[in-house]
Amino acid sequence: MTQASTPDLLTLHAVRLTGFGDTPEVAARFGLRLDETAGRLEAHRAAGRVARSAFAAVSGWSLTEEGRRLGESLLRDEIDAVGGREIVVEAHRAFVPLNDVVAHACTTVQLDPSPENHEAAWQALSGVAADLSGLEDRLADCLTRFEGYHRRFATALFRSDDDPAWLTGTDVDSCHRVWFELHEDLIATLGLSR
């Protein structure tokens, strides 16, 4: 039942999950070849599905509305083709209460990054990491593109011992960033909104 997504779908989906990423970041998200990803991005830009923009010294790709619609259609077709919709629906149900824990822990640290709040958030997120492992296993049994969330989350949690930015930072693959991406992945796959 496990299915690997097409590189074209993964390219569009990586743009959605990163929100705004350069070509190497888009390629790296799913381990795609850089040269092929660059070609796919240019083809998607020509079709009006992605746009490239720059702010100061930073440039990257983002989805257009057309790209978002196409991506959701491809994701819907993919999950239906493998008969995995119910698995993703159940995973999303299990995700929702964990999301409350992550949101509370991250918000608390963002508002007051004291050592006490960092420790409390670390404890709460450690429990979530354990649950995430099983959640990812169920999802990855359906679609391989769901692999890696637990490893990334656990790595960020481990690294946060030395640098608190790994809990909530936006410029590193922090717990918050990984969790936000998983949330986006689930709602995109199911065609939901936040």
> pLDDT below 50 for ≥5 consecutive residues: which ranges?
none
What does the overall shape look like? globular
Number of strands: 2
Give the terminus-to-terminus CA distance: 28 Å
**Main sheet characteristics:** 2 strands, antiparallel
User: How many domains?
Assistant: 2
Report on the structure:
This protein folds into two domains: 7-75, Orthogonal Bundle (Arc Repressor Mutant, subunit A); 84-190. The chain is built from nine helices and two strands, in the order αααββαααααα. It has helices spanning 7-18, 23-29, 34-46, 65-81, 85-111, 115-140, 149-159, 165-168, 175-190; strands spanning 50-55, 58-63. The chain has a two-stranded antiparallel ribbon with strand order 1-2. The radius of gyration is 17 Å and the shape is globular. The model has no long low-confidence stretch (mean pLDDT 95).
List keywords for this structure.
9 helices; 6% strand; two-stranded antiparallel sheet; 2 domains; mainly alpha; Arc Repressor Mutant, subunit A; 194 residues
Can you summarize this structure?
The chain has 194 residues and is mostly helical. It has nine helices and two strands; from the N terminus they run αααββαααααα.
Annotate the secondary structure layout.
Layout (H helix, E strand, L loop, with lengths): L6 H12 L4 H7 L4 H13 L3 E6 L2 E6 L1 H17 L3 H27 L3 H26 L8 H11 L5 H4 L6 H16 L4
Antiparallel strand pairs: 1-2
Helix pairs in contact: 1-2, 1-3, 1-4, 1-9, 2-3, 5-6, 5-9, 6-7, 7-9
